[in-house]
Amino acid sequence: MPIATLNPDILALIASYVPRITIAAMMQVGRVFYHECPKVLLRDGASLEDDENIVKFVRFIRAEDGTRARYLTTLDLSFTEGDVISDDSAQLLAECLRSLSFETLRGLSIAAAEETFRAHPCLLAALQTLTTVQDLAVDECGPLSCTLVKALAPGMHAITLAYDNDADTDAVPVEQVHPLVLLQGSRDTLKTVELTFMSRPLPRSLYPEPYPNVHEFWIGWCSYTDLSPYIHAFPNLQSLTFDATYDEMDLHGLEPLVQQRLPNRKAQLEHGSWKALATVCGAVGDLYVSGLTCPVQLLALVMKDETHEMLRDVLNDTRPSVLSLRSGRAGALDAATGLPAVFAALGAGNMKVLKLDLDIPPEDRDTDVSAGLGNLLSSLKGMALQSLELTFTCFELPECMSGERFGMESVLPLCPVERYLEDVDVDALGRQCLAEVPTLENAQIMIRGHRTRRHGTAVVKRANPQQD
Asked: Computed from CA positions of residues 311, 369, 391, 460, in that sequence, does the dihedral angle turn out positive or negative?
């Protein structure tokens, strides 16, 4: 009986479903597996952390006359501070990268980049030859790393840069390190930008030609929050995310944040902002300091220590159609100073959907939730709100005693908030929402993290929205 021969593509498919250690064993079975299995391994990329990794990688990739290099899709150089590779290993890897054809390499990630390039210039030169890279991530980026960014910019689709504050970045001209200048070679291809620790202002005289295809921008840990250069550079932006762009210590007083916000907002009023954004995410403080002034379809906010006045100003400047707010701020349901006052001041606005997660802090353990809910619903009557999702989250309860927080297994008696939420009928709360806010078509009520009650959820829909 003739022996059936499987097509190599089928063998490769089989290999893709087995553990890596099994693939290594399969490679020793025969020439077909020896040739096909590396394609599966390299499709998931390679991560190099030390000298041993480099030696094994180079030996593996140079097998079969170096043809395996064409199947590597991503390369992650995870050299950490204090664990710098040897000169011999760096030279070995650099020669490998220069001499072989990595034609399908699309992703390149480098940790501790500036330290690595200072210690091993040969690696910087070798990496600059990897012109097929489309997704580049550089951690601890400095002047040397910026030369790599500029060299690989043509054809780039996504860039993630975390600048190194200790790498003398401030000692060189801003045009040599600012991403908007460095990435001009990718002006027609760039789609996603992530920046961390880039706090140097860019003079208007150095503003680059716009990047028409950038739709996602993430900015984090940048004390300089003037959005003007990015508004100019990314005119067609759709998604904007902030992460800790202000100093939380300033939350002890509103005045420092006001002083940061005013020039940012003034710049946008003078020179313009985005026409509209589809999605904006971040902490209330981030949005407040940025002075962002443009309509937003979906605004997702987190609030803890920020004031309700800051939230009010952010909502006035963005007028979201959908607001998702997680608030751990004390006094959230207070009629005069909390969320009811904020929503009442907005008036009709543009908001159609409100998703509100009240992460109740210990300071609010004595709150009259029933009265607070009435305050909230009363403030929503002036809006054209169609959908309300209201969540009561109790994970921060039970209460603290003598400065010590007790966890979910606490034997302390239930606080007033917990007692109310223990027995409340969530379906009845949903019906109350529909009754008090006439424009609502549906309401969802959820209780999470209660010590004695399982998570409760109710979704109530108006029978015929047109009749109410």
From this structure: negative
Instruction: Check: CB of residue 450 under 8 Å from CB of residue 418.
Output: yes
> Against a cut of 0.85, is the pTM above it?
yes
Grouping H, G, I as helix, E, B as strand and the rest as coil, residue 401 is strand
Q: Which amino acid is at 181?
A: V
Our measurement of the distance from residue 396's CA atom to the centroid of its chain's CA atoms, rounded to an integer in Å, reads 24
Is residue 217 classed exposed, middle or buried when 0-12, 13-18 and 19+ CB atoms within 10 A define those classes?
buried
Tell me the two tokens of residue 288: 């407040």
Torsion of CA 325, 330, 335, 336, to 10 degrees: -110
Separation in Å, CA 218 to CA 48, 52, 221, 279? 27, 35, 10, 11
Distance, in Å, from the CA atom of 203 to the CA atom of 456, rounded to the nearest integer, reads 54
Long-range contact set of residues 296-302: C-beta below 8 Å, sequence gap at least 24: 296/320, 296/321, 297/321, 297/322, 298/322, 298/324, 299/323, 299/324, 300/324, 300/325, 301/325, 301/326, 302/326
Neighbours of 239 (CB within 10 A): 15
Digit-by-digit pLDDT tens for the chain (468 residues) are 455 565 666 666 666 666 666 666 666 666 666 667 777 778 889 999 999 999 999 999 998 899 999 999 999 999 876 467 999 999 999 999 999 999 999 999 999 999 999 999 999 999 999 999 999 999 999 999 999 999 999 999 999 999 987 767 778 899 999 999 999 999 999 999 999 988 888 999 999 999 999 999 999 887 656 899 999 999 999 999 998 766 554 555 667 788 888 999 999 989 999 999 999 999 998 899 899 999 999 999 999 888 999 999 999 999 999 999 999 999 999 999 999 999 998 876 789 999 999 999 989 999 999 999 999 999 999 899 999 999 999 988 765 444 444 555 556 788 899 999 999 999 999 999 999 999 999 999 999 988 888 878 999 998 865 544
Report the distance separating Cα 464 and Cα 282, nearest Å.
36
Contact 246, 269 (CB under 8 A): no
Measured CA distances, 140 to 27, 144, 164, 165, 220 (Å): 38, 11, 4, 8, 14
